[in-house]
Amino acid sequence: MKITLIVIGVVYSVSALIGLTGLIGALAKKLGAIRTYLFVLYIMLAVQIAVAALTIINYYRLRGTSGSNCMVTSGSSTINVCEEYAKVSPASIIVTAIAPVLIQAYACYIVSAYKNRLIKQQMDHSSTSMKLSVNPTYTSVPVTEQGRPPSYSTTAYPYASGPNAFGDKGYNHNGSDHV
C-alpha cells in the first residue's frame, strides 16, 4: 500500500510538471512541444491505468486477509491495513481509481484535437502561401458604365472662356468692382 501511494504521488507530480510544459507549448503554438506533451500524456495515461489496476487489486487482495502483511508500523503506532480496507466501500475505491484515468484520457483527447487543429492550420497556411506565390489568379472585372472612362462633351469648358477665366483683366477678383 505504501509503495502504491508513493507511485501515485510521483505520477501526479510528474503530470503537473509535464502539464506546465504543455501549457507553455500551447501558448506558443509550437507543434513540436504539443506532440512531445501528447506523447508524455499517453505514457502517463498508461501509468495511471496501471496504478489504478494495482490499487483495485491491492484493495481486493488485502481486504479479507490478516497476518503480518497487513501490519504497517508508523513511528510508535501499528495499523492493520486489512481492517482499514474493510471499512472502505468498494465503490469509493473504484471511483477514486478510475476517475483520474478518465480525466487523463479526456486530456489526451483534447490535446490530440488541438494538435490536429494546429497541423490543419499550418497546412492551410502553407497551401495558401504556395498558391499565391506560384500561380496567382486574377479576377476580371465586368465592363459597366462605372468602369468606363467619363466621356467628354463637345461643348467648351465654361470657365476656359476669357470673360469667365480667373485671370481676366476686365473683372477685379478681390471683391471690388474697380478695374
Description of the structure:
The chain is mainly α. The protein has one domain. The protein is built from four helices and two strands; from the N terminus they run ααββαα. The protein has helices at residues 2-28, 31-63, 81-87, 90-134; strands spanning 71-74, 77-80. The chain has a two-stranded antiparallel sheet. Strand 1 (71-74) and strand 2 form a beta hairpin. The model has no long low-confidence stretch (mean pLDDT 77). Keywords: Membrane, Transmembrane, Transmembrane helix. The chain crosses the membrane at residues 6-27, 39-60, 93-114.
List the helices and strands and how they pair.
Layout: H1 2-28, H2 31-63, E1 71-74, E2 77-80, H3 81-87, H4 90-134
Antiparallel strand pairs: 1-2
Helix pairs in contact: 1-2, 2-4
Keywords: Membrane, Transmembrane, Transmembrane helix
Transmembrane segments: 6-27, 39-60, 93-114
Output the keywords.
179 residues; mainly alpha; 4 helices; 2 strands; 4% strand
